[in-house]
Amino acid sequence: MITRIYWSFWKHSSLAIALLALFAVLGLIAVESFKVKKEQPYFKKKMHAAKLAERAFQVLRPDLLKKKKPDYKDWDPANTGLIGEFLSPVTSNTGSLSSKQTSVNPNFAAVILHLLKRAKLEEGDTIAVAVSGSFPAMNICLFAALETLKLKPIIIASTSASQFGANHPQMLWLDMERILAEESVFTVKSSHASLGGTQDKAIGMSKEGKDYLLTGIKRNKVIYIDPLSFEDSIRQRMDLYQKLSLGKQIKAFINIGGGTTVLGTSLGKQVFKSGLITQLPDDINPPDSVIKEFLQKDIPVINVIQVESLARKFGLPPAPKKTPKPGEGKVFVQEEYNPWLCIGILLFLAFGLYGITKLGWGGNQTDFQLPETIRRK
After folding, report:
1. How high is the pLDDT of residue 207?
2. How many Cβ atoms sit within 10 Å of the Cβ of residue 352?
3. Distance set, CA 182 to CA 111, 213, 234, 257, 329 (Å)
4. What is the Cα–Cα distance from 299 to 282, expressed in whole angstroms?
5. Beta bridge partners of 168
6. CB 278 within 8 A of CB 300
7. How far apart are CA 77 and CA 60, in angstroms?
């Protein structure tokens, strides 16, 4: 049996191929090094929302700082006034200082606007909103986004606040809303409010604290919600959203903070992460909550919790020492590969490879001949 072996001699220039490979490496380095900055969708609207939030911060700052103690700057190095007390009669539970410091950034208004647009909301759409006193700066950013997109929110507030939130008895979140409305910064505000805290009834809070909350609700002329139980709080809120929608379809629900009634028990806080949520999880049955009710109706939910994680995702600084200016962060501008540079390098490589393999660029004709020892045979 005869075995035949077929082969052909290498007919391309090794030097030309080496130079082409070197160019490919340099091209890869160039593509990674010379990225371009690209404005993200809705850039102008995002800037408008961030500037509106910044204005709201500035309007509230003098009134807020009047309520602060001398050592306040230890907690609020940016001296914004939006970081609350360590403990007060209206404090509902513990809170993360770094999360509260991170939230005082007007560019979160652009992040929330981005999420609202992802939920495909348009001007004039009716949405349900839940806020609490725990993240007043984030509430402001939400209101700025709502005003910018000209949405029609139905807002229900929880009056109490966790540590470092809007937990001064004389400057609750409802007071901040009122000031911003009086100064014509925002037109939207809460129509109803509960005490908040455990079971939405401030269970465990002192009588003094509850009295402060009730006085604050009355002072700001907001309708008081007094649920009988956890389940009744969910029912009352859902009924109010439906009633106040005046027959119009609610297009989305947005929540700021970790209210138990809204998120459910501690399990609900683990299941419903921050960001846009369009459906219930398949593998877990979350506890009853306002979010679960909306998702069961196929209404998208925007959940704003885990502030530091949300900040990292959109390129916002953690616990900034100075209040960031509008326009900072990946939500406005992102670095992307230069498409023209990529196309140019690919075309050059393709053209060079074709020239070397098909046109014989860089080749030496003597290299294409059989070796002399083989030719003699």
Report:
1. 94
2. 18
3. 26, 21, 31, 25, 31
4. 17
5. 171
6. yes
7. 17
Amino acid identity of residue 256, one-letter, is: I
- Single-letter code of the amino acid located at 141: C
Q: Which residues contact 312 (CB under 8 A, 6 or more apart)?
A: 318
Residue 52 contacts residue 148 (beta carbons within 8 Å): yes
Instruction: Give the type of residue at 13.
Output: S
Give the position of tokens 């509850």. 210
Q: Is 214 exposed, middle or buried (0-12, 13-18, 19+ CB in 10 A)?
A: middle
CA distances from 44 to 148, 177, 225, 270, 330 (A): 10, 25, 38, 34, 14
Q: What is the pTM of this model?
A: 0.85
Q: Span 91-105, mean pLDDT?
A: 94
Bridge-based pairing of strands 167-168 and 171-172 is antiparallel
Tokens of 308: 């530091």
Q: For residue range 259-292, list pLDDT tens digits in order.
A: 888 988 777 777 888 999 999 988 888 889 999 9
Distance CA 186, CA 136 (A): 14
125-171 confidence digits (pLDDT tens): 999 999 999 999 999 999 999 999 999 999 999 999 999 999 999 99
Mean pLDDT score of the chain: 89
